[in-house]
Amino acid sequence: MIALFVVVLLLTVRSLAQVTTTSTFSILSVMSANGTSSTSLSTPSDVPLVVQGEAISAHFTNAGLVPSLFANFTPSALLSVSYGGLGTVSPGQNLSLDQIKSEPTISVIALNSSVSLSGVYTLAMIDAGIVGDNQSNGQMRHWLVNGVTINGNSINFSNATNITDYVGPNPPEGEGAHRWKLVDFYFSYVFVLFAQPKSFTPSNDLATPGQPLGPMDITQYINNTGLGPLMAGMYFDAQKGISTVTVSPTSPVITSTLPGFSIPSSSPTNTVAIPTKVRGKNAGFKQTYSASLVFALWTSLLFLMY
């Protein structure tokens, strides 16, 4: 009887640990799915930076940005995009055009101590079209800055060359959500940050400041100018009106399935507010299953005792 009591007690403790761990990430996913600004979200202090890096990489793959836009994406830093009145953007967040019409604040944090952010970089934001776009027609350039540096975690534009000033997204009506990337690029809109080596040579048509919003082929631009590795990226979705086209679905990113994931420890880890999404029909399965098992065992134990 004592042995059975000990077994049930251990299972109870294990179940509570699972519920606590899973619930932490479920709260994040619900808030992100509702489109809430991530300034009101708090990324758990025990989510390692390596997991956050793996999560944004997985988001790019699930959204079709890899391999259609970039052959691969293994970030060495995290890119945070924040709009006034909105806060920090979550990966793939669906935003209104009014929310993103003004230039955002960009910050960067290295994923580990071996990554130096002391160099010079190119920051860009491009419209990558709707999910499923094969990128054969190139992209739309919404922002392009050469020669930015990083002070602390903030982008410094003081000695940079602003080739194209920030132009807020304005996708064609009815086309469905575009992906904007700050990669420092993504209808999806994408922001992307590239290392800019000393050998960097700007292309003729994008060598001088003041170039307006216009088309570009990001792959061709990278090859022609000699840009270095893609360091960091972020993207969000935006659309105008009601979609009249069928857009390919994307899969959620389940944080607990990423290689760097481990059960949270009590020691804090350096993090940045880029929450990962934990969605899906089985999101609450672990909690329900564990609770039911423990309840049944305790009921059986009490029955045997009395």
Provide a quick synopsis of the model.
With 306 residues, the chain is of the alpha+beta class. It has one domain (34-281): PEBP-like (Phosphatidylethanolamine-binding Protein), CATH 3.90.280. The chain has five helices and twelve strands.
Short descriptors:
PEBP-like protein, Phosphatidylethanolamine-binding Protein, single chain, 12 strands, signal, 306 residues, alpha+beta
Helix content: 25-40%
The CA-CA distance between the termini, in Å, is 12 Å
C-alpha-based Rg, rounded:
22 Å
Unreliable stretches, pLDDT < 50, 5 or more residues? 13-45, 173-186, 241-249, 265-294
CATH topology: Phosphatidylethanolamine-binding Protein
Q: How many distinct helices?
A: 5
- Element string (H = helix, E = strand): HHHEEEEEEEEEEEHEH
State the major sheet: 9 strands, mixed
- What is the overall shape? globular
Q: Into which percentage range does the β-strand content fall?
A: 15-25%
Instruction: Count all strands and give the number.
Output: 12
